[in-house]
Amino acid sequence: MKSIRRFLVIVLVAIVTLANFAAAVRGYLGSMDEAERLFNQRMLQQVDLLNYTLPLRASQADAGAVIDFPARPSDIESSLEFQWVRNDGTLLARSAAMPDTVLCSLEEGFRYFNFNNYRWHLLVTASADKQSWYILAERDDQRYRLAESMILQAVYPMVLAIPLIALIIWWVAGVGLRPVAKLATELRQREATDLYPIEQQDMPIELVQLTQSANELLRRLDASFAREKRFSGDAAHELRTPLAALKIHCENLLHELHPAPESVVKLQLGIERMSYLVEQILLLNRTAPDHFMGQFEPVNLTLLAKQAVVDYSAPLAQKNHQIEFNGDECWVMGDRAALATLLNNLLGNAIKYTPANGIIVVNTWQRGKDVVLEVMDNGPGIPVAQQARVFDRFYRMGGDRHNSQTPGCGLGLSIVQQVVELHAAHIALTQSRFDQGLLVMVTFAACSLPDSTTTFESAPSRVFHHEQNR
């Protein structure tokens, strides 16, 4: 059942149709019985008319001659035919449609008889002076056709009213379900941080239970977010502090020992890797869509991308990378910190996995209602078969011992994907436009430039960060 409103309309219209059908059948049968009684009553009244007119007509006719009455117009749907017969069986008079012989035995009552290729309804009754008999006949099909034409005039409005009833039920069901739509709208318009209970004032009884369940869920979510927030704060303090102390002691040990033992060097690398892993796990937790409580605002994605390039100037210079930036001024609706995290992870991955003297390109393009962020390099790239798996947490191509010998924990692209989902964006991995390498494309919905915000001063579209080290 995909629609309560449609379900109610279908069920109620089916019930109304079934009730109308039952009423129509019952009314049809009852009306046919009543029509039968009325037609028989008309035949009895016709006998009274014949008692008055036929003796007078017979006194004016020749003795012994059969009185023939002319045929009636063909446009008369139902007409009564008759025979006038003496007690001895002599035919005295007949209408045009009746045969010139006595039609049936002279026995009082109603009956059916077939002649002239039709089924007839007969009335045999004695005359007023008991010296003769009247045989009145009416075609059975004409009786039924006339009765049905009258009955169907009453049935047709019932049938034609069903579509109107369906529209009325549809409207009434919509009015009745308005509180549900109102509740859905209220929940849809709530901010991510609004976990206050839903007001139950003037709430229909049918929605009170649903609202109570929703309020209980909001209460549990609020408690869960509070626990997550406390966990993040506690974890950041409890994990970063001892790691920082270990790092300081390890550096002091390296300065005291000349030359430094290989075990101490490996210890330093392990501490750095652990620190990086802790930072990534905390960042992954903070950017999870289910737990993210940030406030969205218009963000200049191009300016944010430029800042990320500036922040990574030292690693770029260290590996003698050439960095190229091309950009339109692009604005998106989002969280500035989360978008900066996305850019830092994408650019950081490109720097880490691109060999020395490589090329990295960052683009921000406005494409109609979309904003496209591109980060491209000429590194080893990612095989198509593994492009879907690289978004899994802790997954790295080649395992912990990556071909590039670059330390990592397999969380970078997982964080990127969470930020993408948080902003209802789309990410795609494909072959770069170089001979080899990776192109990451993230598509956002564009937003208009805030009125109070001035545009950034355009810089040259191409910036190179390797010349100073050559």
List keywords for this structure.
alpha+beta; His_kinase_dom; five-stranded mixed beta sheet; ATP binding; 3 domains; 13 strands; 9 helices; HATPase_C_sf; 470 residues; Heat Shock Protein 90
What does this structure look like?
It holds the Pfam family HATPase_c. It is an enzyme of class 2 (transferase). Its EC number is 2.7.13.3. The chain crosses the membrane at residues 154-173. It is a multi-pass membrane protein. Helix 1 runs antiparallel to helix 2, helix 4 runs antiparallel to helix 5 and helix 8 (336-353) packs antiparallel against helix 9. The chain starts with a helix and ends in a 25-residue tail after the last strand. The protein is of the alpha+beta class and 470 residues long. Strand 10 and strand 11 (370-377) form a beta hairpin. It has three domains: 4-162, no CATH class; 193-286; 294-469, Heat Shock Protein 90, CATH 3.30.565.10. The protein has helices at residues 4-60, 140-176, 178-188, 205-256, 262-286, 301-311, 313-318, 336-353, 412-422; strands at 67-68, 81-86, 91-94, 109-115, 118-126, 132-139, 297-300, 322-327, 331-334, 359-367, 370-377, 426-431, 438-445. It is built from nine helices and 13 strands.
